[in-house]
Structure prediction request, 247 residues.
Amino acid sequence: MSSYKRGIAYQYVKETKYDRESIFDRGDFGQIPRPPVYKTYPDNARIPLPRPDFEETDSLWGILNQRRSKRRYSADPISTTTLATVLWAAQGITLPARDYQFRTAPSAGALYPVETYLSIHRVSDLKHGIYHFNVRDFVLEEITQGNFSNHMSRAALGQAMVGRAAVLFIWTAMVLRSMWKYRNRCIRYIYMDAGHIAQNLQLAATALGLGCCTIGAFYDQEINAMLEIDGEEETAVYLAAVGNVYV
Ligand SMILES: Cc1cc2nc3c(=O)[nH]c(=O)nc-3n(C[C@H](O)[C@H](O)[C@H](O)COP(=O)(O)O)c2cc1C
Prediction:
């Protein structure tokens, strides 16, 4: 056994392991409020998204083979149809259910704790700004106007690709949506959910010939502040830059 100091990473995994003795132990959580399945901004400006364009692409096998993280983007804007198409691919609704709707990406317990925000830098017919993706109504809800490309890049540890991206995807976790059912184990599932969504985005971007790179390195609270979220019950978990490939 090595002698390095074990930190909270091991502690978290240890304390959230299922075992036969404790699996039905619900822990001392009190009453966890169950948040709504959908987050919406009813008072904010809404921008309807065009229908996704399911153009013919390479086969799934070819797309899997080509997928690569691409970090160099051209100055050309992407169209709103392209944006709508990759948004749908990442997390779009595919099958109505009861109080929720199934999506393109799987989610533990169909609880869908991951929300999507966009920092729009170069998308035709869309003003610069930070928007929330209302997945139920397939519209964008405006959070703040202005070009945040430099702020986002700085918040992503100065990674230049963020500033050059046509759009930055920001995924947040609505922690209580999952904690309500899974207690402390929820954090594992939230990050798995985000990974599925991100892979969908990467594959869709590849299919459309776009560049995409997912990003785990960012100053959490700087991103949270720009989204105007509390960083606790809702907090940023993952980012992805998308743009036309620089050739
Ligand atoms: C969870 C996660 C976080 C990542 N964070 C970054 C990042 O902050 N910056 C970056 O340039 N690439 C990031 N990447 C991309 C990886 O560097 C990339 O996936 C890896 O080098 C393998 O290359 P490929 O995606 O082209 O197969 C991240 C990938 C994952 C899955």
